[in-house]
Amino acid sequence: MPRTLFILHRSLYIHPMRYPSFLRPLGLGLFLFGFAVWLYTLTLGTFRLTDEVVRQTLKPEHQVALKTSLAPLLGRDYSSNLRFISDLRGAIDSYNSSQQAKQNWKAVIYDEYLFDLVKRSTIGGPMEAAGLWFWLSIGLAILGGLLYALPRLNDQPGIRNDGLVRHPATHRGWIGIALGTFLIGFYILLYFYPEYLTNWTALVDPISRALNGGPASRWFLYGFLYTAIVLVMGVRMLINYRHSRYQQYRTYSVMAFQLFFAFLIPELMSLLNAPYQDLKSIWPLDYDFFFDYEIKAKLQAGTLGIFMFVWGTGLSAVGVPVITYFVGKRWYCSWVCGCGGLAETLGDPYRHLSDKSLKAWKIERVLVHGVLVFAVVMTALVLYSYLSGQSALFGFLDSYTVRKTYGFLIGSIFAGVVGTGFYPLMGNRVWCRFGCPLAAYLGLVQRFKSRFRITTNGGQCISCGNCSTYCEMGIDVRAYAQRGQDIVRSSCVGCGICSAVCPRGVLNLENGPVNTRRI
């Protein structure tokens, strides 16, 4: 274990100093100030489109095509990015509606140019003082989040509800609704309107250049924010669950996998001109793994690319069933997965919001397995197109249409907008419960051929309900405990929180015979 993590780990058990109580309001104040500055940076800067920006951004043929449409914008100063983006989009749309574009679909210019045009046309603000604005916004927010969590070390280890189901931030109150609305809005902008986020990408440009040699894209911004949140909220998780060694090691694991395998290593691979690949991502969660352009990129990369392709294929076909047989789906969903890592850290305050009703369980099973079938059909069509050179099967199943539909509905709306934005409304595992195709695949193996289960000692249960309240997967754990029945639900991710919050030690994560009854 790295020395810094070892020191943190030891401090969770032995902390001779007491942290002053004012750190919590101070931390909250710093976080809110940094968050406010972060929002404010979106409004900074002026915008001027020049011939040089056009030459740097557009392909030669598109420069000629858009020359007339862009002419009124050249050299004009805009103080509002909203107006600038509107006029820029209008110029592109004006060309696309022209007779030339209507006669030849290949001549249509899509809005992928908007992000680069806006970013390169920005003058001032984060574009010229990225470091200053970074520390005034993201830096202060990170510091505030850490300071807010530290005073919890003064308390005795263990779980206390502390009005969890009544607080406006954690139980569908106005704070939670405001956070959910912000997350939904952020994902909509990230996926569909990234040109409005160029100032935020400028904040992390220096970090991007240090890691991959180029300016930050919207996906680098997302990866950085994602990783920072997992690390900061991971510290909170380590403090809150310091009475459980299992939770300690599990949290270290998701923090490390997110930092190294999901963020740093892929960015460094880009710096070395190797294919960008999250080595812990597995098909069908990584739904574009078998797309033609992904396969070609890996094959063209030589030995390393071939290794990455074989590694990913082997992990999906062999690693998932074999490892899940021995330890259940928890090995991935609760120890490795980035989606699970965000759910267990940022989403931890909302785990009690998961619906434990039978109706929710029935909907969950239909949706999650439906998405798995969708992913399998899409992948089969994509591979057929790659191998045969034909885009359509039976003349009407077009692989490009199917994968575009999957990317929009599942990859963007379900996994991002709903999957994270609904944390404060439906709990932290909305995506994992209702939409993740890999969770469905792992769950099928866990249901029919796995040694993992949570054993119960019904005679010790006092029906406090902590286990059911804290179950993020919508399982009524108390009902199993009262019957003394092992919990072997395919949806269980083995996070172990039910065991960690049980005051009587009724629940234990164990391996046992495969022939235990499953439901």
UniProtKB/TrEMBL annotation:
PROSITE patterns: 4FE4S_FER_1, 4FE4S_FER_2. It holds the Pfam family Fer4_9. The keyword Electron transport applies. It comes from Fibrella aestuarina BUZ 2. GO terms for cellular component: plasma membrane. GO terms for molecular function: 4 iron, 4 sulfur cluster binding; metal ion binding; thioredoxin-disulfide reductase (NADPH) activity. PANTHER family: FERREDOXIN-TYPE PROTEIN NAPH. Its EC number is 1.8.1.9. Residues 452-480, 483-512 form the 4Fe-4S ferredoxin-type domain. InterPro entries: 4Fe4S_Fe-S-bd (IPR017896), 4Fe4S_Fe_S_CS (IPR017900), Electron_Trans/Redox (IPR051684). This is Iron-sulfur binding transmembrane protein. Gene3D superfamilies: 3.30.70.20. The chain crosses the membrane at residues 21-40, 132-151, 172-193, 219-239, 251-272, 306-327, 366-386, 406-425. It comes from the Bacteria. Keywords: 4Fe-4S, Electron transport, Iron, Iron-sulfur, Membrane, Metal-binding, Oxidoreductase, Transmembrane, Transmembrane helix, Transport.
